[in-house]
Amino acid sequence: MVRRAGSTDHEQVVFCHDRASGLRAVIAIHDTRLGPGLGGTRFFPYATIEDAVSDVLRLSRAMSYKNALAGLAHGGGKAVIVGDPATEKTPELLEAYGRFVESLGGRYVTACDVGTYVADMDVVARTTRWATGRSPENGGAGDSSLLTAYGVFEGMRAAAAHVWGEPTLAGRRVGIVGVGKVGRRLARHLVEDGASVVVTDVSARAIEALRSDLPEIAAVPDVPSMLGEPLDIYAPCALGGALDAVTVERLSARIVCGGANNQLVDEGPGGTADRLRERGITYCPDYLVNAGGVIQVSDELHGFDLERARKATSAIFDHTTEVLRTADEHGITPAEAADRVAEGRMAAGLPHLWLP
């Protein structure tokens, strides 16, 4: 069943129910002016279907902005599967979901998100041509953290050029919060560029693994300790909500640039982004710099080529430069500037060449 999204600006919302497998899902396509909606599938035990709809509308809209900023020929889409992935995920359910994706004829391209993994996309791909984030054995790109981390690094280099005049992190002290897949790879890029790196993570094992590989990296026990460190750059790479009023007031860094999603706790007027600007801290919007992963999975549609995808990801340097320059020219925050740039690209549009 297809329903319009009421008062939202979404193009299409599809409610998916397969009785045999128990699938309950919602697919939201926000905007296809740049190309087919691209965004991951979230598998989560929402309390109500209304909660699921609210989340998928928010997430799909955010993907329109991320994809536009990344320079992709893709609009924004997202899907949510309602249920506990630990107990309700089955091959039959994922195959049924793939059939719903296929029924949209290429208007929506899916990938991994919270609760779904590369192995799941391999199953979804059995019943649709429009599943990315698959394993290399099945023609996919595999772990998308590889280019996510590289894109954050390129954004950080652009911010360094904007603030200090040189596109290098050499001699700068960078604090990374969260050294999972993205944070760990980012740390290596920074060390290789000559930066001094200090990290923290809720997992002592993750820190130990990183320092066994890069012993020159320092570690602190928690985020409050990190905020007490003298830093040039602060890189949130763990959970969302990393930048609240307390954190912003304690930051010594001149730049915030990290891989975590939804970093700003208060996105409204006078909120976190405005306070960062008031304090003279250059903020690189997360959906601008962490787009390497979506660039990586989008490349699968053309037969994945790592070097081609890496070259596309390196353009995050130029995109970040454009956003920071726009912010300065108009006296606005980088978050607002990123939205303006994305909206301009969506308004310009591209020929719709993706349909089979």
Automatic annotation (TrEMBL):
Entry's family note: Belongs to the Glu/Leu/Phe/Val dehydrogenases family.
UniProtKB keywords: NAD, Nucleotide-binding, Oxidoreductase
UniProt GO molecular function: nucleotide binding; oxidoreductase activity, acting on the CH-NH2 group of donors, NAD or NADP as acceptor
EC main group: oxidoreductase
Residues reported in the UniProt entry to bind NAD(+): 178-183
Native source organism of the sequence: Nostocoides japonicum T1-X7
Name this protein carries in UniProt: Valine dehydrogenase
CDD domains, per database record: NAD_bind_Leu_Phe_Val_DH (cd01075)
GO biological process, alphabetically ordered: amino acid metabolic process
Residue span, Glutamate/phenylalanine/leucine/valine/L-tryptophan dehydrogenase C-terminal domain: 142-349
Any one Pfam family match given in the protein's UniProt record, by short name: NAD_binding_2
UniProt KW Flavoprotein keyword: no
EC code: 1.4.1.-
Active site positions: 78 (proton donor/acceptor)
